[in-house]
Design goal:
alpha+beta, single chain, Sulfite Oxidase, Chain A, domain 2
């Protein structure tokens, strides 16, 4: 059911202050890390109680990483988030996502594929060698970060399920559990959260299935236990806490397009020349810095991805 527009809380109207993760959360994370380190190194068989902040062994540096830019401090990456399932404030996810259970967890891959499969999340950790990918990330609200994600190209999953010739788009569906996610109880968006890519976008090497950041498993507030990351698009395209991946013939409806298609198009490529209807996209504020910097076309990844949109009117297909 399509929600009423009046129920929306526009990102530009949400203000929040930074808060450090409280002492108890740090202690819990440290305890979880100590208890799980041996298991993680032995094969990533995680304990059932806590799974965030576990060190991931044998990471290789990816040649696809962004170079020459300072990383956003870890404390900012885990305390300044958009994740409406846990609240609309920037610090809400870090404060309210602790109860999210990320084991057991599975991701169903279905639709127009020859080999549909349900992947246990721990199987995904072993599907391909894990890489550290440093990417610039740009939010539609005008702030940005540089984050060392951990994962591998989504194509590693795609090729194992063998999409048919009818598969033109890929849809990502996130968990929407009102018992664990208090934001789902509110009519902010049309739950569950859904995002999508064109098939060639999904197969691009820069698009990753993400399982960690800063060398550790994902914190709940950053999309644990599995998400996607598409660095040349605005951040809301990178679905979090994914439970289903569907290959479809028709362009899927996506959550923010359902909420307000005028402001959030299907493609949502970072484009400083196309303003959001309520603010300019020409500049951005890097978290941790003073002042603003010019926004780069395709978030600076134009050399790699501009060919995907050759001949397209990027003001129409925004």
């Amino acid at each position: 059911m399509l929600i009423k527009r009046s129920a929306l809380i526009p990102p530009s109207e949400i203000t929040s202050k930074h808060r450090y993760v409280n002492r108890r959360e740090f202690m819990q994370a440290g305890a979880a890390l100590g208890a799980a380190a041996g298991l993680a190194a032995a094969g990533l068989a995680f304990p059932r109680s806590a799974h965030a902040g576990i060190k991931l062994p044998d990471l290789r540096k990816s040649p696809l990483s962004t170079s020459g830019e300072a990383l956003t401090p870890y404390k900012d990456v885990i305390t300044y988030n958009n994740y409406y399932e846990f609240g609309t404030g920037k610090d809400d996810p870090s404060e309210t996502s602790g109860k999210l259970r990320t084991r057991p967890w599975s991701v169903a891959v279905e639709g127009e594929v020859s080999k549909p499969k349900v992947f246990d999340v721990d199987e995904l950790f072993k599907l391909a060698p894990l890489e550290e990918r440093v990417y610039r990330m740009r939010c539609v609200e005008g702030w940005s970060m540089v984050i060392p994600w951990v994962g591998y190209s989504l194509s590693e999953v795609v090729k194992r399920v063998r999409p048919t010739s009818k598969a033109k788009f890929v849809q990502f569906i996130s968990l929407a559990d009102p018992e664990q996610m208090h934001g789902v109880r509110m009519p902010i968006l049309d739950w569950p959260y859904s995002e999508g890519l064109r098939m060639d976008e999904a197969m691009h090497p820069l698009t990753i299935l993400c399982l960690g950041l800063y060398g550790e498993t994902l914190p709940n507030q950053d999309g644990a236990p599995v998400r996607v990351v598409i660095p040349w698009k605005y951040g809301f395209k990178s679905g979090k806490s994914i439970i289903k991946i569907r290959f479809v013939e028709e362009q899927p409806m996506t959550t923010w397009a359902l909420a307000n298609a005028r402001e959030y198009g299907f493609y949502s490529n970072v484009n400083p020349e196309v303003d959001h209807p309520r603010w300019s996209q020409a500049k951005e504020r890097r978290i941790g810095e003073f002042g603003k910097r010019p926004t780069l076309m395709f978030n600076g990844y134009g050399e790699q991805v501009a060919s995907l949109y050759a001949g397209m009117d990027l003001r129409k297909y925004y």
